[in-house]
Amino acid sequence: MTRNIERMRTRLQSLGLALRPHVKTCKNIDIARQLTAGQPGGVTVSTLAEADYFFENGITDILYAVGIAPGKLAAVADRMARGMALRIILDHPQTATAVARAAREFDTRFRVLVEIDADGERAGLRADAPELIEIASILDAAGCHVDGVMVHAGGSYHCPDADSMQQMAETERASAVAAAERLRQAGHAAPVVSVGSTPTATFARDLTGATEVRAGVHVFQDLVQAGLGVCEIDDIAISVLTEVIGHRSEDGRLLVDAGWMALSRDRGTADQPIDQGYGLICSEDGEALDDIIVTGTNQEHGIVGRRDGSPLNLDTFPVGTRLRVLPNHACATAGQHDGYWIVGSPDQARRWLPRCRGW
Ligand SMILES: Cc1ncc(COP(=O)(O)O)c(C=O)c1O
C-alpha cells in the first residue's frame, strides 16, 4: 500500500499536480492521512457519511463527488455551517435551481463544481453543452460559488491498451479544461479543474490546465487494475483471508468460507482477457497461485478451482488451509468489511484499521 501511494505521488509530482485522493476506497483516516501527506490535504468522498467521518478526524476540505440529490442540500448546508469546506457537484439546470432555492432557504453559499462528461460513460454535461453556462448563471444569481468543473473518465476502465488509456486521459483533461475555459469566458472564476481515475492518472502524459487529480483505488490496486495494465498482481495490497472448509472430489474444487458477502459480487474482470472469477487465490503469505480462482460463490461459501476447470490436487489444500483472495474491485470488496488487519508491517505487529460505513 505504501508503495502504491508513493508511486502515484511521484507520478503526479512529475506532472506538477496535486492529489485529492478519493477516499471511498479506503474509508479510513490513517490511510487517508498517508494519502494526503505532502498534498494540499483535501479529499474526495462518495457519501455524506464519509464526509462526516473524515471531518470528525480533522480533514476539512472535502469534495462530495456524486451528483447532489436536492434532498441532501439541508444536510450539506448544516455541514458547511459547522465549518466543513464541502463542495458539491451537479450537471442539470434543475439541480442548480434546487441548489439556488436551498441557498436562499438555508442562507448558504454552496460551493459547486459542474460535472463534465468526457466519454458518455455515466454522468455530466459535454464540455460544449449550453446548460453549462445556464447552470453557472442560476448558481451565481443565488450567491453560490461556481468553483469550476470535475470529470471522471470511467471509460478508462474499458481501454484495451496503454495507447487508448493515454488518449482517454487526454480526452478527460481536454474536456475539463475546455469546460472551465467556457465558464471563465462567461465571467465565472472557475479556479478548480478536477480530473481523474486511477487508470487515467497512471497513463496521462500531460495534464496541463488541470488543478488536481482524484485517484482512489490506486491505494490498494486490484485485479481489474492489473487486467488493465495499471499495476502488477504483486502490487495488490488488499485480500480477504479465508479457510478451506471442504473438498469437492467430484470436480477437484475446494470450498472456502468466503462467499459473496466477504468478496462482493463484483465480476469486474469478466470482460477482461483474464477472467479472475470472484478473485485470485494466494497462499496465506500472499503468493499468488496463478491459475486458481474463486469460480463460484454463495452467501458464505466460495468454490475454488482452476481457471481452466481442470481438477486441483486436493491433498495440497487440507481442510483448515488458510488462503487469501485478491479482489476484482478493491472498493467493493473492502465495502463488505468493517475494517482491515494490517499484516506485513515492518514491526510485524498486527493493527486493526476500521472503516466508516453507511450514507
Ligand atoms: C467521481 C470519481 N472520481 C474519482 C474516482 C476515483 O477513480 P479510481 O477508482 O479509478 O481511482 C471515482 C471512482 O469511481 C469517481 O467516481
* Strand content bin: 15-25%
- Proportion of helical residues: 25-40%
Could you spell the SSE succession in H and E letters? HEHEHEHEHEHEHEHEHEEHEEEEHEE
CATH architecture of the largest domain: Alpha-Beta Barrel
Shape type: elongated
Return the CATH topology of the largest domain: TIM Barrel
What ligand species are in this complex? pyridoxal-5'-phosphate
The overall strand count is 16
**Derived structural class:** alpha/beta
Task: Give the N-to-C terminal Cα separation.
Answer: 26 Å
Query: Can you tell me the residue ranges where pLDDT is under 50 for at least 5 consecutive residues?
Result: none
What is the total number of structural domains?
2
Summarize this entry quickly.
This protein is of the alpha/beta class and 359 residues long.
Task: Please give a structural write-up.
- The structure is a single chain.
- The mean pLDDT is 96.
- This protein has 2 domains: 218 residues, TIM Barrel (Alpha-Beta Barrel), CATH 3.20.20; 113 residues, Lyase, Ornithine Decarboxylase, Chain A, domain 1.
- The chain is α/β, with parallel strands linked by helices and 359 residues long.
- The radius of gyration is 22 Å and the shape is elongated.
- It contains 11 helices and 16 strands.
- α5 runs parallel beside α6.
- The strands form 3 sheets. The protein has an 8-stranded parallel beta sheet with strand order 1-8-7-6-5-4-3-2. A 6-stranded antiparallel barrel has the order 9-10-13-12-11-14. It has a two-stranded antiparallel ribbon with strand order 15-16.
- Helices cover 31% and strands 22% of the residues.
- α6 links the parallel β5 and β6.
- Bound molecules: pyridoxal-5'-phosphate (PLP).
- Pyridoxal-5'-phosphate (PLP) binds next to loops.
